[in-house]
Amino acid sequence: MNVVVYTATVLFCVCILCVVGVCVRLQLRWRAWLRDVPGPQATSFCYGNLYELICRDVVPVFLEWKATYGDAVRIWGTFGVRVNVLTQEPRLVLTDPVAIDYILRKRAYAYPKVRIVRRMLGKVMGYGLLAVEGDVHRRQKRAIQPGFSTRSIRKLTPLFHRYAHRLRAQLARQVADEGALVDLYRFVACAALDAIGSAGFNVEFNTLAHTETQTDGQVHVGHPLIVAFEHTLEIATGNTMARNLFDAVTMIFPWLERLPIGVESVRFRKAADVLFRVASELVQEAKDAVLGPASALYRTRTNAERPDLLAALLRANANMTRNNDEKHSVLDKTELSDDELAAQLSTFIFAGHETTATQTTWLLWALAQHPEAQDKLRAELRAARRAHNLAEQSEYGACDERRDLTMDELEALPYLDACVRESLRLHGAIHTTSRMATERDVVPCADGRRILVDKDTVIMIPLAAISQDPALWGNDAHCFRPERWFEEMPGKDVYSAYGGISFLLGAHACIGRQFATAEMKSFVSVLVNALRFVSDGRRTIVKRWIVSRPYDLRTHQDACMLRVCRAP
């Protein structure tokens, strides 16, 4: 018995010593690598400073930290108090433009997305461009790039107009003289999905035809692709404290990821299989149509005229394969497998419809809140149509490419461009991006400081907070004011890329940003010319999800309720 007690005592002491050793090591590690970075004390034992980001709107929180501690702030993650066993390393919150440029552009592949994020994106849409890193990302991006060239997007503009007109006609059928209250977000999301189906894959999803407007203006969408899409994302991104805590623990114990919950659950796999099955079928059908029999692989002319992204990708893929014998490295062999092609399609479906739908909806919502800006934009659009001798749009008539402004003509409209830029600044799809250091590094700052970063340090870049920083955009940075883009603003110099920082920078910058802005301009030009959008005074807030969706506080649903009337 004494031996058992003695052994248990020894083991207990060894455990205590191990715990103390880990705590001391973590403290010394922190003091060595982040000793000069100021930041707040942890407000929660379990969640550190992340509790504030979960319970409050992240934009004012990040701006408060910036105002108090500067452009580089140390915060604590899950189990983030200073003395504990399971603590993660402190996280860095960076708003410094030099540091952000260094991480996102100069050393993009040394700071990949956090593993949890990559895993979630991979499970939802396959391991396409958004979910891979390193050489695989380089190879996939090189293969996909031809489909997003200016020439390719220019060919797609008539398709954007086609679905914009279908959306306009759908809304017009519900509009009486006094207007009708509708959930604009659901309508725009369906039209955007139909547009990506045609422009991306040469297929008709017909999701607009599956919409049902209820008496209170809410929209029910019964299309199986929409249902599966929403169900998949709901399971994968359930924003509960328990989910955040579990995700953090899996960073310490990766084997927990295999538990049958969340993205590993049977319920999730059934929903995700719908998306993957659609993507795989589209790839096979497109290969049969675009490439044809093997004997005619590189000389098909009929389908060479298909303007959709998948056709362009397949043709580029075939050209790469043709000279495969001359290639020696992994990066040289840029052609994609069928599984990778299917993953790109799933990515296109998500990024091409979800982000564009939310950003277009936010722009129309902002125009409803600022009728003077809406009137000014409508006047510019109609003046442009008259200048190019375009007929006035009929309410229900079919459209052809000469009934609408071309991509080049839309790009030449300064106020439309300013409205799109201002909406992207205020309501960019991605509100925060996180990166993890793959090695020890020294991050430079604008004031000359150099921050020592340890391996595995999580770095958070609050995109939405940067885009609403009064130091960059003026004291009215939180307001929708397109005219600021005709003025001198520090933010325009610091983040000069289109959309500011909302499309990210460097190697991981959104490859479809030109596609998204062209679609936004096409939709807005058609809708604002024919319809008037009016706010009924209800409060719509930003739901900080994977994307920044509109959320209606009256119905407690993802929605943007606006009154739609005939334009004067």
What oligomeric state best describes the polypeptide chains here?
A: single chain
What general form does the structure show? globular
Tally of helical runs: 20
**What class do helices, strands and sheet pairing give?**
alpha+beta
Low-confidence stretches: 80-87, 294-304, 327-332, 394-401
Distance between the termini: 93 Å
Helix share, percent:
40-55%
Strand fraction: 5-15%
Biggest sheet architecture:
4 strands, mixed
- What is the gyration radius calculated from CA atoms? 26 Å
Question: Mean pLDDT, as a whole number?
Answer: 79
Count of DSSP E strands?
A: 14
> In which order are the strands of the major sheet placed?
1-2-9-6
How would you describe the overall organization of this protein?
The chain has 20 helices and 14 strands. By secondary structure, it is an alpha+beta fold. The strands form five sheets. The protein has a four-stranded mixed β-sheet with strand order 1-2-9-6. A three-stranded antiparallel β-sheet has the order 3-14-10. Strands 11-12-13 form a three-stranded antiparallel β-sheet, with helices on one face. The model is unreliable at 80-87, 294-304, 327-332 and 394-401 (pLDDT under 50).
Outline the secondary-structure elements.
Elements: H1 2-33, H2 50-55, H3 58-69, E1 72-75, E2 91-94, H4 97-106, H5 115-125, H6 134-144, H7 150-172, E3 180-183, H8 184-201, E4 211-213, E5 219-221, H9 224-236, H10 241-252, H11 266-291, H12 309-322, H13 338-369, H14 371-387, H15 407-411, H16 414-426, E6 433-436, E7 441-444, E8 450-453, E9 458-461, H17 463-467, H18 470-473, H19 490-494, H20 513-530, E10 531-534, E11 540-544, E12 548-552, E13 557-558, E14 561-566
Parallel strand pairs: 2-9
Antiparallel strand pairs: 1-2, 3-14, 4-5, 6-9, 7-8, 10-14, 11-12, 12-13
Helix pairs in contact: 7-8, 7-20, 8-13, 9-11, 11-12, 11-13, 13-16, 13-20
